[in-house]
Each structure stands twice: as C-alpha cells, then as structure tokens.
Amino acid sequence: MIFPFLISAIAFGFLGSFHCVGMCGPIALSLPVQHLSGGARAVGIGLYNLGRIVMYAIIGIIFGVIGLSFQYFGWQQYLSIALGIALLILFIIRIVPKNAIQKSSVFSKWNQWIIKFLAPLMKNPGKRNLILIGMLNGLLPCGLIYLALAGAMATGNIFYSGLFMAGFGAGTLPAMVLASYAAGLITLQMRNKIKKVLPYMLLLMGVLLILRGMNLEIPYLSPVLHQNNAVQCP
C-alpha cells in the first residue's frame, strides 16, 4: 500500500522538478558551496536538499492533521471540493496577465519575508546554515507545492500526507542537484515553457479534487466517501 503511494509522490516531484529549477534554481546556484570541491561540495548540496525535503515533510504532516480533522467530522468530501476550488482560483490568477491581485498578494509578501532570512545565511557557509537554507527554500510560495499539498491533504492521513510531501521532495532531487552543479543545464526557454504548463496542472488537479468530493460513484475518479471514512473503490 505504502510503496505505490510513495512512487506516485516521487514521480510527481520528478515530473515537476524542472519547474522547481526555474523557481528555486537561483538559490541552488547561489549556495555557499561554490568554493568547495569534490565530496565537501556534494555534502553541502546534499544538506541543502535534505533541508528542503524535511520542510516539505513537516508541512505535509501539518496539512495531514488538517485533512484528518475534516475526515473525523465527516467533512472529507467538502475539504476535497474546497481544495479544488482554491486551485481553480489559483489557476485563474495565474492565467490573467499582470493581475493586480498577483502583484499585491500575500504570497508575494511571504516570499519577500523568507528571502530576508535567506540572505544572511547565503553569506555564511556552514552545515547548519545549508540545512536552514533548504528549509526556508521549502517555505517559498510555489504552485507545484500547492498541488502536492492539495493531494497530500486530501489523503486524510497524517503519515501518508507527510510521506507524500517527502516523496515529492525526493522526486525533485535529480534536477535540483544537477542545477547546483551546472548553471546552464536547463535553458531559460525550457523553464518558461514549463511555467506555462503549470497553471493547467492546477486546473486539472482542481477539477479532479472537486470530482472526488462530489461522490459521483465513478471508480477511482469520484469514489463514494462514506461517513465512516471508508472509500469505496470497486
């Protein structure tokens, strides 16, 4: 049961990892490990990515608790619909060019707040700081993380939610590690194409979550969510 679930999370992270490079690549390329060589540099990059994955897992557990609370009160289907609607709103915001909401959004202010803490850490190399850089990086606003969190939260299981987010982080490792070694590995044109696809991934996930919460008795796509929390999938 756990193995297929983890594989799907890793696959999701891997498929979206090029978007992660576009968003977090500048941080990965600016890590205070450029002066290191060989194994020391590899350890530094590993610590940074470990911090990211740990933060993803922590966020996953937090959202898993929220999802479990909804499930306990028999509101799992309403949670699924609400998450779907939230992703549709994000989709609309993303496709509207130069949207005023996007410019003055809470996400933008949150991003600036995180960067303020990142800046001094980037100037002081050290194992502890590299882990902290990775953890703060994991808190940066990102559409792909919203997608992953929506899927993790909808599990209604604290362990699976944290595991899904950890698996998602692990899936992004190959691209993020390579980005730390090579600035020109992924072209700007490729990043821009991936950024254009992301809003439609939000749309797809939003629609799927809404369908899941509507109890349409469609196997796997919209199974019946009973009050006893059992999901019926023939």
Protein topology:
Blueprint: H1 2-15, H2 17-29, H3 38-72, H4 76-95, H5 100-103, H6 106-122, H7 127-137, H8 143-153, H9 158-171, H10 173-181, H11 188-213, E1 224-225, E2 231-232
How does this model look, in words?
With 234 residues, the chain is mainly α. It contains eleven helices and two strands; from the N terminus they run αααααααααααββ. The protein has a two-stranded antiparallel sheet with strand order 1-2. Helix 2 (17-29) packs parallel to helix 10 (173-181), helix 3 packs across helix 4 and helix 4 (76-95) runs antiparallel to helix 8. It is globular, with a radius of gyration of 19 Å.
Q: What's this, in brief?
A:
By secondary structure, the protein is mostly helical. It has 11 helices and 2 strands, in the order H-H-H-H-H-H-H-H-H-H-H-E-E. The chain has helices at residues 2-15, 17-29, 38-72, 76-95, 100-103, 106-122, 127-137, 143-153, 158-171, 173-181, 188-213, and strands at residues 224-225, 231-232.
Attribute tags:
about 230 residues, two-stranded antiparallel ribbon, 2 strands
- Helix coverage percent: over 70%
H/E topology pattern: HHHHHHHHHHHEE
Largest pleated sheet? 2 strands, antiparallel
Q: Please state how the strands of the largest beta sheet are arranged side by side.
A: 1-2
